[in-house]
Design a protein that fits this description.
The chain is α/β, with parallel strands linked by helices and 589 residues long. It has 3 domains: 236 residues, Glutamine Phosphoribosylpyrophosphate, subunit 1, domain 1; 187 residues, Glucose-6-phosphate isomerase like protein, domain 1 (Rossmann fold, 3-Layer(aba) Sandwich); 156 residues, Glucose-6-phosphate isomerase like protein, domain 1 (Rossmann fold, 3-Layer(aba) Sandwich), CATH 3.40.50. It has an 8-stranded antiparallel sheet with strand order 3-2-4-1-10-9-11-15, with helices on one face. Helix 3 packs across helix 4 and helix 8 packs parallel to helix 11. Bound molecules: fructose -6-phosphate (F6R).
């Protein structure tokens, strides 16, 4: 979601630098963008709707500038609604990530006091509030920002610019911000990736802090007291792997293809943290797995794996629903978040609530030093390398692999788990070969014009069915729904018409007979049956053969749906890396 970058230092082509940094944040997902540069006594602003693509900006050399990629929440995708927003004087500018929950009352009051608004956004109130606070006698931008930030409700990250004092000030709650020092000046961004080339030492801003960026460097304050505090700098580490597309046409293709290597790496190299996670589950009195979207399906898969492999009950809760379950959390509970980015706000909020109740916090996550990484007591890093396609593929299989290994660790059969993950990796390598891919492309051709598609699975394959449906709908925009096989006759079957594509997960386990009989019911109503599993069956109109890897089946079963979604997306003219309306880092509620 919204991306933020700002710079103060030696005069440079700052407009171009900001635009380049915004390109590094594009993967987060956005619908419009804007850049502001301090030009002599005023702030120059350029904004556009749509993608940055080949866009350029035209600003003179300057010592101060910032920019923003916007994912609309309040106000349509229009040029005036893109950030930065100015105050009435044009001397102050603001960029913002989050939602100012009390913006209506603030805006009405500001309009009542004569302020002129140019956008429909919640964010613009910040610029006008700052204008009033400074005019009201608060002596400097840092103090004024602290006052304004206090008046905002919600989870927000804010950076303000004052062209007179030529400084930027930033504060945040939950939404990430990282500031850094480089050879030419200081910079700040919502993601360390954007600081590459601008900083070599960085500090991750905490919720109770405020940071000032000026020619004299970074100044850090405790926000409530405005007491200056030391800046705990650390080396910038964005060397988490290869961010180049290489020979692949899309990041989605690249990241699907990386899955065998990611699984192998985890199976061979992550034993210690995985055993620690297993031990924490053993010691807890009640474990909760929490995640959103694809990560929630990995979490649900985990609850099945713990049950069948380690005979241990693990609760599963979607991040945004956690607050309705948190009454069960005690200091004996373990709450484990699953997250690729480590920044999903619904997950972070759940973890904050769990911490308030004294629970032990764990995480299975990909992005090191993310908010989640910094807040938990124990962690397993997926080490899957950057996932740049908005859709999650390799991080999903990596999370499931960790949970499979951790449930085997709990059961005292770690080596069996490792063998299964390695067999799944080998199986995926075969599935990524040309002949298997061509078969999926053929199936994609036959279904890409469908309006609806259904996916069924039972037991361990039920969460896989949910994930498969999500992957197909967000890449191809075909309406796809996943169901527990046994639920069909309770309603869903009403939607099946002649020719409706239905994907059936039929592993060689105890669910096979029942799922095939469900498949027969769909076929009897004209469903076009796409079977996924290690053994053919006459009910399948087409069969995508997968290796038999027992309880590691979720690791090989994700790929067919990922590939179907990818190829259907291409056939429908969609960009699988940047689906409409979706964001990679979901940092607003
Ligand atoms: C789907 C997808 C999303 C994410 C979800 C959680 O392909 O990518 O559903 O899985 O937004 O994101 P993380 O894992 O970063 O917490």
């Amino acid at each position: 979601m919204c991306g933020i970058f700002g710079y103060v230092g030696e005069p440079t082509e700052v407009g171009d630098d900001v635009l380049a940094a915004l390109r590094a944040l594009e993967y987060r997902g956005y619908d419009s963008w804007g850049v502001a540069v301090g030009v002599n006594g005023h702030i120059g602003v350029e904004k556009q709707t749509g993608k940055i693509a080949q866009a350029t900006v035209d600003f003179p050399t300057s010592d101060i500038g910032f920019g923003h990629t916007r994912w609309a929440t309040h106000g349509g995708v229009t040029r005036p609604n893109a950030h930065p927003h100015l105050d009435c004087t044009g001397q102050l500018a603001v960029i913002h990530n989050g939602i100012v929950e009390n913006f209506r009352e603030l805006r009405d009051a500001l309009i009542g006091r004569g302020h002129h608004f140019r956008s429909e956004t919640d964010s613009e109130v910040i610029a006008h509030l700052l204008e009033e606070t400074l005019a009201g006698g608060v002596p400097d931008l840092a103090r004024a920002t602290a006052v304004v930030f206090d008046a905002l409700q919600g989870l927000n990250a804010v950076i303000v610019m004052d062209v007179r004092s030529r400084e930027l000030v930033a504060a945040k709650t939950v939404s990430p911000l990282v500031a850094g020092i480089g050879s030419l000046g200081v910079a700040i961004a919502s993601d360390a990736l954007a600081l590459r080339g601008h900083a070599d030492r960085v500090v991750y801003l905490e919720d109770d802090q405020l940071v000032r960026l000026s020619k004299s460097g970074l100044t850090l304050y405790e926000r409530k007291t405005m007491r200056e505090i030391p800046v705990p700098l650390m080396a910038l580490d964005v060397s988490q792997g290869d961010t180049a597309l290489g020979a692949y046409p899309h990041f989605m293709a690249k990241e699907m293809a990386e899955q065998p290597a990611v699984l192998e790496h985890l199976a061979r190299g992550a034993e210690r943290p995985i055993r620690e996670l297993a031990a924490a589950v053993r010691e807890s009195y009640g474990t909760f797995f929490v995640g959103c979207g694809t990560a929630s399906y990995a979490a649900l898969t985990g609850s099945y794996l713990y049950s069948r492999i380690a005979a241990r009950h693990v609760n599963f809760v979607v991040g945004s629903e956690f607050k309705y379950h948190e009454h069960f959390i005690t200091p004996q509970s373990l709450v484990v978040a699953l997250s690729q980015s480590g920044e999903t706000v619904d997950v972070i909020e759940a973890m904050l609530a769990a911490r308030k109740r004294g629970a032990r916090l764990g995480a299975v996550l990909n992005v090191a030093r993310s908010t989640l990484d910094r807040m938990v007591d124990l962690r397993v890093h997926l080490d899957a390398g950057p996932e740049q396609c908005v859709l999650s593929t390799k991080a999903y299989t990596a999370k499931v692999a960790v949970l499979l290994l951790a449930s085997h660790a709990l059961a005292g059969t770690y080596e069996r788990g490792r063998d299964l993950v390695l067999s799944a990796a080998e199986g995926l390598n075969h599935m990524l070969a040309a002949d298997w891919t061509e078969q999926v492309q053929e199936v994609a051709r036959s279904i890409h014009q469908a309006e609806h598609l259904f996916v069924i699975g039972r037991g361990l394959a039920f969460p896989t069915a949910l994930e498969a449906a999500l992957k197909i709908k967000e890449s191809s925009y075909i309406h796809a729904e996943g169901f527990a096989g046994g639920e069909l006759k309770h309603g869903v079957i009403a939607l099946v018409a002649p020719g409706t594509p239905c994907i059936v997960y039929a592993p060689n386990d105890e669910t096979r007979a029942d799922i095939l009989s469900g498949a027969m019911e769909l076929k009897s109503r004209g469903g076009y049956m796409i079977g996924i599993g290690p053994t053919p069956d006459p009910v399948f109109d087409v069969h995508l053969l997968t290796p038999d890897v027992a309880d590691a089946a979720p690791l090989v079963n994700a790929l067919p749906a990922q590939m179907l979604g990818y190829h259907a997306a291409l056939l429908r003219g969609n960009d699988p890396d940047k689906p409409r309306n979706l964001a990679k880092s979901v940092t607003v509620k």
